[in-house]
Amino acid sequence: MAVLNDEQTMLRDMVREWSDEQSPVSAFRKMRAAAPAEGYDPAAWATLGEMGLPGIVIPEAHGGTAFGYLSLGLVLEQLGRNLAASPLASTSAAATAILMGGSDALKAQWLPQIASGAVVATLAIDEGPVHDPAKIATSVVDGKLSGTKAFVAEGDSAGVFVVAAVDGLYLVAGDAGVTRSPRHMADSRSHAQVTFDAAPAEKLGDASLTAQVIDRATAALCAEMLGMAEQAFNTTNDYLKTRVQFGQQLSTFQALQHRMAKMFTELELMRSAVEGALEAIDAGRSDIDQAVSLAKAVASDTLHLVSREMIQLHGGIGMTDDYDAGFYIKRARVLEAMWGNAAFHRERFARLNGY
């Protein structure tokens, strides 16, 4: 488990309090019912901007706080607990791409706007239903980018895209040459098919930068998954302590205690793996790719287990829309596939270690 400094502890507690009071799961229900075009509540996002959260990984010189990826993970974990719909993870990953590869002019143009929350940024990487960077066909000719990205998180509202092409990573701003087609998925969040047709683009870096940015986006995703898994476990545990069957609380049945104990131990391993990946990024270690693949494989397996058990241990009511359990399993299945599933990352981890 990561050792937090005073600033990180205060940040975590502040976001946890805000999430519980201002963005509980009931707020997600309202957002889902209202179905805004953005796929999130713009007012809630504006509040996060006022709190300085979009600038966590952005240097102070560009309006951010430079708290790093572990701090970003703490925030995403707390938001993930209540399924808060926000473009923070995607925006932070895209901002990192600009920070790592952009010119001084690009940084000055975009990073302050991103840090304030005025502009939503996102990554446009995959071109099919399965994450596979080796199958990118998007191309750039004379500074004009063309291609189609299949599932772009926050693609409905993004003001700037960081796009993977055959020869590297590019920045595409605005809507010139950009067509968005919303995709309606199980988690009721923003996912769009985005088509680029000779869109003006500026190069950020080669394919190695693409891989580095994907790793950072994956680590941020794992932090959200950690928050979801912990809350799903706690909600199920509370339910077992209050539900009475055959004259006894469900929590008194040994078979169910064993299942909860199994989940608890897996959650502890998940936290270590996820925080380890975030710390590796902040430390600039040489094994970031391995740490991220380990984290995503463990996070996917654990969230899959806990969200499934949440449904089963709630019984038949767990499948109804009156209970929150269904929201967790729907979001979980989307995140498990995003940036590569557990099998993809186990294979990648083995390959990176020479197997």
Number of helices: 11
Sheet bearing the most strands, described?
4 strands, mixed
Largest sheet, spatial ordering of strands: 1-4-5-8
Kindly report the average pLDDT value: 96
Elements, N to C (H/E):
HHHHHHEEEEEEEEHEEHHHH
Quaternary state of the chains: single chain
The secondary structure category is alpha+beta
Q: What is the helix fraction of residues, given as a range?
A: 40-55%
In whole angstroms, the N-to-C terminal distance is 28 Å
Task: Work out the number of β strands.
Answer: 10
Regions with little confidence, pLDDT below 50 for 5+ residues: none
What radius of gyration results from the CA coordinates? 20 Å
Description:
The chain has 355 residues and is α+β, with helices and mostly antiparallel strands. It has eleven helices and ten strands. The chain has a four-stranded mixed beta sheet, covered by helices on one side. A hairpin with a 2-residue loop joins β9 and β10 (248-249). The protein is globular. The mean pLDDT is 96.
Précis, in short:
The protein has helices spanning 6-22, 25-34, 42-50, 69-81, 88-101, 104-116, 207-242, 254-283, 288-314, 325-337, 342-352, and strands spanning 121-124, 139-141, 144-153, 160-165, 168-173, 178-183, 191-200, 202-205, 244-245, 248-249. With 355 residues, it is α+β, with helices and mostly antiparallel strands. The strands form 3 sheets. A 4-stranded mixed beta sheet has the order 1-4-5-8, covered by helices on one side. Strands 2-3-7-6 form a 4-stranded antiparallel beta sheet, with no helix packed on it. Strands 9-10 form a two-stranded antiparallel ribbon.
